[in-house]
Amino acid sequence: xxxxWIYAQxxxxxxxxxxxxxxxxxxxxxxxxxxxxxTSFDKAKTFFRPSQENIYDPFLMKDMDLAAxxxxxxxxxxxxxxxxxDYDVDGTTSTSIVxxxxxxxxxxxxxxxxxxxxxxxxxxxxxxxxxxxxxxxxIVSVDCGITAVEEAKYAKEKGIDxxxxxxxxxxxxxxxxxxxxxxxxxxxxxxFDGLSGAGVAYKLVQATLTVLGLNGxxxxxxLDLVAISIASDIVPLVDENRVLMRHGxxxxxxxxxxxxxxxxxxxxxxxxSISTSQIVFxxxxxxxxxxxxxxxxxxxxxxxxxxxxxxxxxxxxxxxxNKKRRDKDSxxxxxxxxxxxxxxxxxxxxxxxxxxxxxxxxxxGIVASRIVDLYCRPTVMLxxxxxxxxxxxxxxxxxxxxxxxxxxxxxxxxxxxxxFAAGLTMDECNLEEFKxxxxxxxxxxxxxxxxxxxxxxxxxLDLSKVDLKFWKVLNQFEPYGPLNMRPIFVSxxxxxxxxxxxxxNGHLKMKVAQNGSAPFDVIGFNMHEYLPKVRxxxxxxxxxxxxxEENNWNRKKSIQIRLKDVMxxx
Length: 570
Prior knowledge:
The protein is of the alpha/beta class.
């Protein structure tokens, strides 16, 4: 797929030269910083050296005083507590944090993760009944609960206290609970609303330790789990999340907990150099697979493992589940493409809505994301479960799919999510009207230009300027994630060195040089179609968009170019 290259420009263009002088960095590095809102020496210092001193006081969050006091009381009185989680990575890491924290004080704590297909998303009456059966006096929900108005009322009627820890968008009514922690609450003045669910759970642990007269910094032992949640839940990797992520990665690489170490060893990850992207593409999907295929409790068991033997067993189990997930994923993707080819005129559709009764709920969100990438259209994938239609929605940049679903809420039994991803449930009788309504909503907000894929370029770069100093500073931009993505560069008029080839499953491989630079290795995943044109460039030079990354092969490290797009001379 070819893109329109759009060059990003900093809001404060005067900051570039000032940063270049004060930091002693290249114009490109100064430009990258300014694009990220880093406009002064002090901001650059915080960006490059994120310290736990930059973590906000948890008591700035609405209701934190109430939540921490209630949880501290439960600890002092040795009450039975049920940790009520969610079935994705954020939910299972959040559950593990609070569960392990309570166990350190000897509490008779338990956890409940809804089964994706039997229980559905969020707090349910059935889940509260589980708490009643276990004789729990307190439920702590994590990564869910902000819209559980009726369920909170039911818990109160049954005499069970409820603390809600969530990070999703709040509805018009806040549940009536002992405390509702959510930085996205309209009435919450917490300085940063981009925390993951595990991030909110971490803040609760911090605050509770303080109320107990202990050092709140002891909560940092859980930052590895917070880091996994941040990377996997695609929350903004700026501000407080950048601090939490940086220190969490340090724990994962230097003193990994038993379960994480077992999983990393099983899939042959190099502990000591695990990055955000490796969590996103390797660790996270395996932890997530359990919930996608049904029982997320298996992921929690891995994360709370305290022996090497148990951890190894749970890791093997998750790997087997993930293989089944991948098989379902491929099968569903093929089915989705078949339906699009037969039934959908993508050029005229503002949104792609696909329904198949037999699709597996655990993988349709992944496939919806791939359809978005292929066709640059918001996509909703739907399946039928027990007579109801359930599904996942994914969106494109600049379009809020949650708000679009909100305009269809009279047709839905349940929905929730955020700008780029959401889940929904409806009666079968509303399917066709939902398709029509959503098409109208999306069409009214988007125009043809919105459906043309763009590639946002950070800067133009001369490869002859990529030396050890440049690379060392660029590495300090990590950890990468939303609002701090790995920079995309453009280089023009490159010489193709040697003979390009196709390797593996359709990957373009070649070497390029510019203005006397040493040749750089280039890999373009699934870009084999460019091979004939690159070979025929006849020395005129090619323009490429790419990211720079470190390639480790046979214990040798080198800077590699990973292609995003190629433009050839006319």
